[in-house]
């Protein structure tokens, strides 16, 4: 191990994409992961009865980046999949993102697109500047919809009020005046045909890539004599928390297999903004397209402690991250990439794009 020149910490998208690109260019790569499996949070597997599930919550691929689709298409075929979500509000299951049908069904109206535009114009609370996640929603749809769909969900998900989070968090969810009920606007909305883990297996299947699972980088750090390290774990851990802990939000996933039921709920995901300790329930068969006489669901319970899943986008955390980033910038021959290492609320496609760039930088300087 100590003679391998390039060590990659983490086999999620960030680590695996860099590994694949460098291996293809002829480098010998050692990939470490502390978990017993590859694929990071995108890991999927069949449960005991053969239903394909996502162990770390629903992962839906969507992007506008042709380059990312072209790259991944080397390792997978695709199934078309448009994601749809309902929110449980006042006893109804209503489309989220908020659209024409959400408003008409919630308030018993019959407005057309122009009517919905006028409705938003009447109820919105204009904010200038738009700094927080509260500003974004009040500015577009006003207080009642904010309280019914966003405030409770956000408090539960982040343990913070929307007024304490950057605008970008709730700005992920569009607001529509038409009847489009898709969750995403992106040009490409597709799922890997054989799942994510199979895609990663193909990506990492290269004679130059050596994989060691169940291996914590920090436990063997002193023995590693690599010329180059690509680190995709939490950035504060790399620097031994010298400036204090960067907040990462965690989740507890409660998986359930439902025998003899082929459909549990009327959409892939149902959000619970105002009830229950969980934020949402996902039924995997919608996402995967799998035919099976049973079904499987997962409930997500947000929590402060546990595996780091989300950076928490707010100004004080960004300031702390910038301190760590300054240390990272002077750390010689170590590259920090990915959602945890760059402390960015990245989707998979953004991580893949960042990893491709990192590989280019490394190859350019090698
Ligand atoms: P990760 O996947 O977290 O991989 C990092 C790896 O590094 C892990 O395997 C970890 O075990 C390993 N590691 C960390 N520290 C060490 C160490 N010290 N030693 C060894 N190994 C270490 N994105 C989408 O595009 N669409 C979605 O629908 C979507 N849904 C999501 C739902 C949830 C609940 C979550 C949490 C995320 C979701 N994402 C989604 C985001 C997506 O998971 C990430 O963008 C992507 O997986 C990040 O890849 P990564 O390689 O940066 O990090
Ligand atoms: N959000 C909300 N209500 C919803 C859906 C989303 O308040 O019904 C807010 C919430 O703050 C959430 C953010 O929008 O964390 C982003 O939602 P997304 O579905 O993109 O979250 P992810 O899938 O990344 O957990």
**What is the overall number of helices?**
12
Q: If you consult CATH, what is the topology of the domain at 6-38 and 204-247 and 312-365?
A: Rossmann fold
Structural class determined from secondary elements: alpha/beta
Mean pLDDT, all residues: 97
CATH 2nd-level architecture of the domain at 6-38 and 204-247 and 312-365: 3-Layer(aba) Sandwich
Count of beta strands: 17
Q: What do we call the CATH homologous superfamily of the domain at 6-38 and 204-247 and 312-365? A: NAD(P)-binding Rossmann-like Domain
Reading side by side through the largest sheet, how are the strands ordered?
8-7-13-14-15-12-16
* Shape verdict: globular
Bound molecules: flavin-adenine dinucleotide, uridine-5'-diphosphate
Order of helices and strands: EHEEEEHEEEHHHHEHEHEHEEEHEEHEH
Poorly predicted tracts of residues: none
% residues in beta strands: 15-25%
Radius of gyration based on Cα positions:
22 Å
CATH hierarchy, class of the domain at 6-38 and 204-247 and 312-365:
Alpha Beta
Largest sheet: 7 strands, mixed
Helix content: 25-40%
Alpha carbon gap, first and last residue: 20 Å
Keywords: FAD, Flavoprotein, Isomerase
GO molecular function: flavin adenine dinucleotide binding; UDP-galactopyranose mutase activity
Domain UDP-galactopyranose mutase C-terminal: 148-345
GO cellular component, one term: cytosol
